Amino acid sequence: MDEKSLIRYSKGRCASCGTIMEVKEYHDLDRSRNPDITGVLMEEDFFMWECPQCGRRGHIAYPCWYFDPEEELGVALVPDIDSSTGAAALQGMNRNLEGLVQSNITRRAVGNFLALREQIAARYFGLDDRTVQLAKPLMIGQLQEEGKEVWNGYFVQILEDLGEEPLPGVLYLGSGEEEVDYSRPVYCYNVYLTDHTPMAVGVNEYAFQLCQELLDQSGAPPDDGRFHLYDLNWAIDFHNRRQQG
Ligand SMILES: [Zn+2]
Question: Where do the structural domains in the chain lie, given as residue ranges?
Fold first, then answer.
């Protein structure tokens, strides 16, 4: 980690054994000052803590701001903004932004580091992050039908140059007229069960493009430079509204 990043220390308490430990927080995640920050953020242990006493591991989240001027992406991490009380926080952020809006900057609010990484990955692969969200209920619905209790899921990457065989965990949809082509790219997500067990899942390109079409047909407005929160709940609401309308 570059020392140009601002490091702060806070105290955390282990939920299992109550041990108080020091948590290292990196702030000022600004690529113009710290070009290496994106790679560091993508490392698995960046936002993991491990209790020195009992070995329990978990995710940390603290308020911080990620900015990549080249990709024109700004992401505000506000812990739990994706909860039921988050809407007011989002409104407040946009009030503070008044007069400062640059419509070329995509601004997003996320509730944890997994969602921040998802935003960076979606941008890297040139995807509309709303489409990334819309694919989630397809996969999660399937897991729930198998009796799994899902907490959330986050896009990770696109895999290309695949073989002729289907990949485990991937939802393959097709038009029904043509056979599914397993060599096409798949969109990979990590889905977490309520006990935080991660599962590697995905959708095929047909399913992802279907979601893109749904978004295009919905007349969703282009980005306006204000903060938006697009997450699993937003995607579920979108699909519900569509079925009712
Ligand atoms: Zn512990």
Answer: 6-128, 132-244
